[in-house]
Amino acid sequence: MAGSQTALREANRATVVDSIRRYGGLTQVELASTTGLSAATVSNIVRELQAAGEVDVRATIHNGRRAMLVTMVHRTGLAAGVHVGTRHMSITLTDSAQQVLVEQALPLPHEHRADTSLDRAALLIVELLARVGAELPELLGIGIGLPAPVDAATGTVSVPGILRGWDDAPVAQVMSKRLGVPVFVDNDANLGALAESRLGASRHFQDSVYVRASHGTGAGVSLARNLHRGFAGTAGEIGHVQVDAQGHVCLCGSRGCLNTVVGAPALIEVLRASRGSLTLRDIVALANDGDPGCRQVVEDAGATIGAVVAGLAIAVNPQCVVVGGELAETGELLIGPMREAIRRRVPLNHIAPLEVVAAELGPNAEAMGAVLLALENTRTTLPTFARPDGD
Amino acid sequence: MALDVEWTTTATQGRPSPGGPPLLALRKVTKRFGAVEALTDADLTVHAHEVVALVGDNGAGKSTLAKIISGVLQPDSGTVEIDGDPVSSPNPAAAHALGVSTVFQDLALCENLSVAANIFLGRELRASKRSPMDIDGMELASAQILRDLTITVPSVRTPVRELSGGQRQAVAIARTLTTRPRILVLDEPTAALSVVQTAEVLMLVERLREMGLGVVIISHNLADLRAVSDRIEVLRHGRNNGSFDAATSAPEEIIGAIAGATRAVRPAWATR
């Protein structure tokens, strides 16, 4: 039983670190009640962690009493990643070592407008910073992912009509002016590709494609481990490849795009007669629960997306296709038929067969990619981080 | 009384077919306060797995409608139906028994009591009628409920006065769920909350919908309502003035209906 005492202390330490991560920052008293450990144990563990340089402890006032706020040490500044989706926004705050400090999601209305959503994003970032006990000057940069092609140089949507309400918004300029921090904007599928190729399923591959199947479908292409955005940021916009010449007219103006067949409105419409009014999340949840109609719709979507991804795979010859986005939460239901459609069309390669796998970072891939975008861009402009107040 | 904490599994039962009777239906409800006609022939339906937003100007009758649903007020005429059967709720306890819970704007939490004590306030768990409160059992059940709702509260032993506005709202919602309601009425759940707290409450409303509850939500913030609701019902001077699908309608149309710039396509008096 010699090891049990040490094992217990290790376990307690892990519980304390987990709790701090989960809430961003907690006072020692709160830590004691959250973990169920005694105040003395928490105090000891916090002192150990502080000595090891893992946590920061600072005096604060909590409910009118003096308290010690414990937060994870932020290694040389923080980065914020914002993923603005069609119906949700998610924000991830990490330190420069990409350690996630706090995350928050916010539902967004249908056809949300740039002014309201950016205002909320700015307020959320400031509040989340306060929650982890950090200040705005510690923020190195902000990455923002949008579900539309983005001109990375100016940080604006490059193709009008796809993301209504955001067409002329100078996203990067508005945010950087407001928070005084460098802001980098990119397409969300590109950011998913960045995150998965750095930290996720395609990290061992030189060339990979990330497919984001959500309200709309898009792809990000990573060649020789670098994101390939194209001249106006429209590389990999597979949602606007024509799959039905007689189909509906798409937001982009052309006809029968992939998005008009497998986009959320199309899937919802197909199910309306038999299942009533559903949302994309409902379809995913019902498909996972075994609803035959929803499974059918997801499987068919997988095959249709797969046929288009096959074309992209022939053009860029990736080693791996990573599938993410909300629809990918159905797992093999979407990815199985997709893999089959891709393998059937892509010339068989005996040296390295094309892999089609689920995203490892799951729903956080895009926000994490936004963090990486901010960190990688600020690293080149700011080789060493100096605190503005000089310490 | 042993509390069975598997309430989420019962709530996530399969959804009814679209043709079935709505969970809650108010038909031609009228309520007068002297010369004030708070509601005139107002209709409202709520299905399971549905979030219905009630919007309107001040004095449009939103709160009166909510109070009729929760049994605080009785309609002068019109019927309230649950599962297609007409019911009468003479008081909030009767509405509660029918599966309707309400979180009012003031939340009615006890500042000095812990999260667990607030969640079980008035319904404390006891092994038998005369035995002391089962504090451990209540704390465990509370922790389970909060975990199912993915609410982050540091501890169920924390006194409510130490919580943020968003966490208080979450505790007030969690409290209503101990009686396993099927319909939840939320009155201004995001009023006076910061953006992060609003985000937490809105994510919670989405979670309630996923659990299969019918949710009626009243708010002044149209962006929040459009973000979480399935359907938006506009009230104007106590009458229905339009019903909008939140997934497709534009805010201009809804604001037009609130302000009276547009009339409901088929106003209640024309269908009589």
From TrEMBL, chain A:
Domain HTH marR-type, first and last residues per copy: 15-66
N-terminal signal peptide: none
SUPFAM superfamilies registered for this protein in UniProt: Actin-like ATPase domain, Winged helix' DNA-binding domain
Domain of life: Bacteria
InterPro entries named among the record's database cross-references: ATPase_NBD (IPR043129), HTH_MarR-typ (IPR000835), ROK (IPR000600), WH-like_DNA-bd_sf (IPR036388), WH_DNA-bd_sf (IPR036390)
One Gene Ontology molecular-function label: DNA-binding transcription factor activity
Family recorded in the similarity comment: Belongs to the ROK (NagC/XylR) family.
PANTHER family referenced in this protein's UniProt entry, alphabetically: GLUCOKINASE, ROK (REPRESSOR, ORF, KINASE) FAMILY
Protein's recorded name: ROK family transcriptional regulator
Taxonomic source organism: Cellulomonas triticagri
